[in-house]
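Appendix B. Chain record.
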Amino acid sequence: MPVADAEKIEQFVEHLWLHQGVSDHTQASYRNDLKQFSRFLSGLSHQGLIAVQQSDLEDFLLQRRAAGVSPRSTARFLSAAKKFYQFAVKQRWLLSDPTQRLARPKQPQAIPHSLSEYDVEALLSAPDTALAIELRDRAMLEVVYAAGLRVSELVGLRFAQLSLTQGLVKVIGKGDKERLVPLGEEAVSWLQQYLRQARASIHRDGGDWVFITNRGGPLTRQTFWHRIRCYAERAGIRSHLSPHTLRHAFATHLLNHGADLRVLQMLLGHSDLSTTQIYTHVARERLTSLHQQHHPRG
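Structure tokens predicted for this chain:
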């Protein structure tokens, strides 16, 4: 990859971080996508990212399709490319944006996997709360399910974000956007038990992190995901799981019990209502299943 391309990619990624608050994960994905495109251009003896035409981008997309790259990954590359070339025009590296007329590939709407209310109860009850670490995990599971947090939001939770007297958590979501979410009595109760009985025995000085490891720092997302899988196995849950399974369950169960879609959008921290609407498909499938199971002519 040409040095000039690498430098411009880094300038672009730094711009995303400084001015748009883009997450580390998205920064890494965009950087990798643009480096792949730069290497593709180098293989064509091309002058680099700043000398491209729309046809070069179309050729790269055709190559990705032939290689079996998913539409979701292609859409992410296009997002990276469009933002990069918009930035490039503002920096006057080039006069026009070669991505301006590129159409985004249509993606099938992915239905998030959820758990039944019975399975959620089994999962929440799986930790042995006589053990300090597992009492911590029970509190974490309760908070995720009660507030619909992303795993990154949960493991990064600090005391300044909690108000146990009011039963609220201030969540710092994507793009550093804040939202206030109720915790509910059950989650508050388990949080209080963890803080009184377990946190100090896990580590004496955990700083201002709410959930800590025996080294005193916060858990990683990967560690918490591993522990969810262990508890699911212990509870005998065979359903598909993902790191956000309890977040999906939070959304689905609220809808099943009559929550308003706009309220759910606020609780989940979605900037676009269309992102939240996907949960209506899950709720509809659940209603259809219940109808078939219980209606005499189902």
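Further analysis of this model is presented in Appendix C.
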